[in-house]
Amino acid sequence: DSLRTNYSDLFSIFASGLLFGFLHWDPLFGFFDLYQTGGAMLGGFLYGWLRIKTGSLWPSIICHSIWNGAIFLIVYI
Hints:
By secondary structure, the protein is mostly helical. The chain has helices at 2-6, 9-23, 35-54, 58-76.
């Protein structure tokens, strides 16, 4: 919400999505593997859009939890 006080919704979604993606970048074990970073960026754009459209953080939290659960099932089960 602090970005939205000074910038447009579109810029806020873009900036927060980029930040979300780069926070998921793993420079130690996957320096050149940017698939995880790109996927997280797309997720960040979606989560930011959901936050603005619904006015609540909970839909984004639920979507992120479902995504993490699906990845866990695919990788470990």
